Amino acid sequence: MSTPTDLAPTRRPLSPRKRAQRIRAVQYTVLVLLIAAAVLFADWPQIKDVFFRPDLVEKTITSGLGHALFNTIVYTLGAFVFGIVVGTIFAIMRLSQIGPYRWIATIYIEFFRGLPALIVFLVFTLLPLAFPGMRIPWDPYGTVWLALGIVGSAYLAETIRGGIQAVPKGQVEAARSLGMTSSQAMRKVVLPQAFRTMLPPLTNELILLVKDSSLVYIIGLSKEHYELTKFGRELANQNVNVTPLVVAGIAYLIITLPLSMLVRRLEANAGKAR
């Protein structure tokens, strides 16, 4: 004789697909509820008044935003070129068979990778105390290119070293068999191939330099040399409102978002080529 327990229907376990669908439905529901709560309970007039005041948006755009954006791009590009040149030199030194070259490159890279960029900028502002009469050409652009470029070169050196090591050794041996010296093989064969594979990480380093350029205010700039952060902060302090900083932040995105899209496209092309 069968008992009531034997007669109860057994519950079938969910398939992995059904379980994934239910988990996704719960996640969407939670997200919708959070958005609905934000829409219902946020004080939108106050948020608009603090972050998006139309008159301050117009004032920020018309009172020098374009010049600050131009300065940010000039600071970044100069530092990037400096970083590429110096980073390439130290990457080759790091791979050298001569011990002292490797040691110097390692000390330089580890030292400047370990320091905050802000400290490097502060040191550059105080250099005239140690070297009276010292003047860096094209100040303040030269000072920014040098300080920001030194920090960037330490990171770029490691990226470039990885790119050089990724070039197959057979390429170097083939170049040497054609009669090239080791420096010719490096210049004409290895570096062109290495830089082709390094384009995505180099573009990422460029994005980081754009953001680090916000620290140049520490060296003390005149108004005509303001970059985006300093420009936005001055206006925000004058008007006791965050809107100028929000507009400055959007200006940064005008630079960095296209670069991010370029990185994704380069990575996709590199993936197809493999």
Characterization of this structure:
This protein has 274 residues and is an all-alpha fold. The protein is 79% helix and 0% strand. The protein has 12 helices and no strands. It has helices at 4-7, 16-41, 44-51, 54-94, 99-114, 117-130, 141-166, 169-177, 182-197, 199-212, 228-239, 243-273. The protein starts with a helix and ends with a helix. The model has no long low-confidence stretch (mean pLDDT 87).
Keywords:
274 residues, single chain, mainly alpha, 0% strand, 12 helices, 79% helix
What is the compact description of this entry?
The chain is built from 12 helices and no strands.
Secondary-structure blueprint of this entry?
Elements: H1 4-7, H2 16-41, H3 44-51, H4 54-94, H5 99-114, H6 117-130, H7 141-166, H8 169-177, H9 182-197, H10 199-212, H11 228-239, H12 243-273
Largest sheet: none
Extended strand count: 0
If you average the pLDDT, what whole number results?
87
Sheet/helix structural class: mainly alpha
Please trace the helix and strand order, writing H or E for each element.
HHHHHHHHHHHH
Number of helices: 12
**Helix fraction bin:** over 70%
Rg over CA atoms, rounded to whole Å, is 27 Å
Distance between the termini: 68 Å
Low-confidence stretches: none
Strand content: under 5%
Give the overall silhouette: flat
